[in-house]
Amino acid sequence: MDTGLMQAAWRREIARIIALLLVFGLAGGLLGHVWAGLVIALAICLALQLRMLRWLSRWVVHPKRVDLPDPTGVWGEVFEQLLEMQKRNRKRKKRLAAIVAEFQSSTAALPDGAVVMSSRGEIVWFNSSAQILLGLRSPQDVGQRIANLVRHPSFANYLAVEQFESDVELISPINEHVTLAMRIIPYGEGQRLLIVRDVSEHRRLEVMRRDFVSNASHELRTPLTVLRGYLDMMEPDTRGKGALLEWKAPIGEMRAQATRMESLITDLLKLARLESDSSVARQELIDVPHLLHRIAEDTRRLSPDRHTVEAAIEADIKLLGRDSEFHSLCQNLLQNAIQYSPDGGAVRLRWWGDEDGAHLSVADSGLGIDEADIPRLTERFYRVDVARSRSRGGTGLGLAIVKHALEHHEARLEIISQPGIGSTFICHFPAHRVQRAQPMVVNG
Ligand code: ADP
């Protein structure tokens, strides 16, 4: 507001009132009623002010219907400033409306569904993809709670747990052939943006890839068994006699390679089975202490002189999960510890529980792993040293199997390693899967 103009207006206003008072005062004085003249002057002033106030109050209520007068003086300045403000607000509103319209048309064109939700989980706005993917109806569903419209246990759990760093996947509420990946992005003061993607094609390709690997492995198994059978028959006898004596070395090599292929096929099938079953492991009670003692004993038998296997197993801790998967992951970790340790090395197996859950650790005093390789170890066919892995009968799939088996048990793998000193693989199982009896430590 221009203060100079306003001050001039005030001066004019006061001068006008004084002039009015003087004129009426003088006129009253001439007629012998000075006070009456002054009272009339003040009454005129008051009436003028009240008229302006009435105009203003009507304009405030109906700014579009009532035009502001164009008086001079203070009121003139006030009305002019009000009109200026109104114009500015209109412009700002237009600009905001254009931004909102642009945002809405750009998000409406998105192939992903977008739903804006209030802090109480009520729908504020959604685009047309959200209508198609979730079956939301406009405008009936605006104001409804999203949890009432998308009724799915995993989505309800996702909303309750409020861990929005990852997606939640579910079958579309309107089409059972469509798989949706949903993600909530919190913003502002408790508001949330829900992004919905159709991942059916992605999942279909994944299933196709899995089925292909599994079918190919099955198909390879039969011819390999035949080849293996003939190779066994062709092996020259132990006394060094037989027509194929000069073929002894090549046949031995062929049998070794056939064994390697068999292990590869077995591991590929195991992995395909683990992958195809994405559900969290069933709640069977695994007698982990018994199982670990058995695996440790088997390992000692297979590597009697070359390695020592120590086991510290808390006998009272059992786990809810899947026996075969737990067995497979322990066996893989122990086999690796033996494979990647020099002769005479010690392998330590530990199973214990605490307030965070239960933990399985397999430590060796072997080759160790470079820090840069650690994050990639659970990738399929990733080997630090391919030749060494192959020469020791490794398939490159062991830790991928461990990773999947752990995922089924909501567990995570921690790898601590130092080249030349040794490695420790620790599996952390959550507390809700642990069952305890009386505490007791058994060393064996
Ligand atoms: P592989 O069949 O080759 O052992 P894995 O998936 O079991 O395949 O392991 C992947 C790679 O991780 C191995 O090739 C090896 O380089 C490394 N590795 C696994 N366990 C150990 C260990 N205990 N010590 C050193 N390196 C290991």
Automatic annotation (TrEMBL):
It catalyses: ATP + protein L-histidine = ADP + protein N-phospho-L-histidine. It is found in: Cell membrane. Its main location: membrane. Its EC number is 2.7.13.3. Member of the two-component regulatory system PhoR/PhoB involved in the phosphate regulon genes expression. PhoR may function as a membrane-associated protein kinase that phosphorylates PhoB in response to environmental signals. NCBIfam families: phoR_proteo, PRK11006.1. This is Phosphate regulon sensor protein PhoR. It comes from Banduia mediterranea. The lineage of its organism: Bacteria, Pseudomonadati, Pseudomonadota, Gammaproteobacteria, Nevskiales.
